[in-house]
Structures are given as C-alpha cells and as structure tokens.
Amino acid sequence: MKRFAKHLFDREDTHWAIAWLVGVLLLWGWDGLFLNAPALEKLQTGFLTTLWMAGVVILFSLGLAWGITNLLYLSEQRRYRAPYLLLTLFLHTLRSIPQIIGILMGYVLITLAIQSEILSAPLAVSLWMALVISLFVFLEIVDLLRERIEYFKKSD
C-alpha cells in the first residue's frame, strides 16, 4: 500500500489534481466568507452543474467514439465500401467545421427550440447541450482509438 501511495503521489498529474482541488477548496472557503447565502448557493449550483455536464459530455463522447470506431473497423475489415465511405465523409465533414462555430450553432438551435417551447425541461436542455459539445469533441477520441487499433494490429 505504501508503494502504491508513493507511486501515486510521485506522478505529475496527481500534483496538478491536488493543486486544483486545493485551489477550489480555498476559493469555496473565500466565497463562503464573503458572499451572502443566495449568491453562494447559486455559485455552488453552477459549479456542480458544470461538473455534471462535463461528466455527461465525457460519457457521450466516449460512446460516440466507441460506436463510430467499431463501425469503421467492421466496415473496413469486411470490405463494406459504402458504409465506410459514408462514415468517413461524415467525419471529415464534421471535422471541417471549427469546434467553436459548431458548438455555437448548436447552442443557437437549442435556444430556438427553447423559445419555440420544443425544449422546456432543464434536464433535456442540458442533455442536448452535452450532445452538441460531444459531436465536436469525439473526433479526437476516434482518431486515438483507430491509432491504437492499428498499433495493436501491427504488434500481433
């Protein structure tokens, strides 16, 4: 156990995580001292909502990347040319849109859906926002997974 703890705390990413956590706790303490109760509650709700949304974006991105990577791999292995070309066309088209522009356009569409009362539940809005972000983030995970597949195919 001591060896595991030593290894864990010797890593640089652990140091950054601890520094982030200490910074958040210090900021929370500072805000607790100087903000009134309603403002502190809003700040805490915003922070927790942001963490929740980040987790949902990660799950959506991993799910999309895993699914697309498997579809690409299977269509490539079984020599299904049409599905492979359609998927790569979709990915390259999505990749040609700058992330910030794609996410902003998605937010505009979500805002229009809220105004026309198509979307009204806060959970539905949050999930759609996470999906929009995931659509423009998962491409890097697809690239990583495809690179790993190629690496392991060569090492077999």
Distance between the termini: 35 Å
Strand content: under 5%
User: How many E-type strands?
Assistant: 0
**Quick check: average pLDDT?**
91
Radius of gyration over C-alpha positions, nearest whole angstrom: 21 Å
Low-confidence stretches at least 5 residues in length (pLDDT < 50)? none
- Tell me about the biggest sheet? none
The assigned structural class equals mainly alpha
As a percent range, the share of helical residues equals over 70%
Element order, helices and strands? HHHHHH
Shape: flat
Number of separate helices = 6
Key attributes of the depicted protein:
156 residues; mainly alpha; 90% helix; 0% strand
Q: Could you give a short description of this structure?
A:
With 156 residues, the protein is mainly α. It is 90% helix and 0% strand.
